[in-house]
Amino acid sequence: MNKSLSFVLAFLVAGATNLALADDIKGDAQAGEKKIAMCLGCHNIIGYQASFPEVYKVPKIAGQGEKYIASALNAYKKGDRKHPTMKGIATSLSDQDIADVSAYYSVLGKVEGASLPDKATEPQGTVADLLKKGGCTSCHGENFAKPLAPEYPKIAGQNADYLYVALKSYKVEGQKTWGRNNGVMGGIAKQFSLPELKLLAEYVASQQGELKTVPQSRFR
């Protein structure tokens, strides 16, 4: 069995219990709209750039999967994802707050009836080999916009520089303020050089997806 697929299967089994527990808390998008004050200054400004640990555009989260947003926030809260600003925000949120905020952003900017291609554009040359090696579609879907499990992110059309920084973060070890602990992504990302991760990020970013940044009226 492909090593990447083995990682994926192990992660799915290990995460089943946590998902069942998370299902007990239902998010309310309308309630979430009243709880996003700390999110607006980054994620609702088109082109906004973070500066830690390097300069990159913050991720588009409008239209992202509800369970993935909640999973990411809980990872910052628990320290599995290390980032001082995001940890401070996540730890200030209750489990219900996280569920509500996640529900809000998952439907923000969605267009009813919009369709996406079933598959990503045909990768060329080196990128095709890298995608096969990483087994990326086994989690994120053939079009990178319909992940195979709800706790996985949609990544098609995400900012390329953010994807690159995120992928690099899974390679980081021994840092107190930066890095991500995830058995699946750590095992996958460490197979690649930084130039290879950049190629992967640029390819995925070029695909059609439903992620976007929706500015609030004050930022239009």
Please summarize what this structure is.
This protein is mainly alpha-helical. The chain has helices at about 5-20, 30, 35-45, 65-80, 85-90, 95-105, 125-135, 135-140, 160-170, 185-190, 195-205, and strands spanning about 50, 55, 80, 180.
How is this structure best described in words?
This protein is mainly α and 220 residues long. The protein has a single domain, classed as Cytochrome Bc1 Complex, Chain D, domain 2, CATH 1.10.760.10. 49% of the residues lie in helices and 4% in strands. It contains eleven helices and four strands. The strands form two sheets. It has a two-stranded antiparallel sheet with strand order 1-2. It has a two-stranded antiparallel ribbon with strand order 3-4. Strand 1 (49-50) and strand 2 (56-57) form a beta hairpin. The radius of gyration is 17 Å and the shape is globular. The N and C termini lie far apart (50 Å).
Offer a few descriptive terms.
4 strands; 11 helices; two-stranded antiparallel sheet; two-stranded antiparallel ribbon; Cytochrome Bc1 Complex, Chain D, domain 2
In what order do the strands lie side by side in the largest sheet?
1-2
Per CATH, the architecture is Orthogonal Bundle
Model regions low in confidence, pLDDT < 50 over at least 5 residues? 5-21
Basic shape = globular
Give the averaged pLDDT, no decimals. 91
What is the helical fraction, as a range of percent? Answer: 40-55%
Beta content comes to under 5%
Order of helices and strands: HHHEEHEHHHHHEHH
Distance between the termini: 50 Å
CATH secondary-structure class: Mainly Alpha
**Structural domain tally:** 1
- Total count of strands: 4
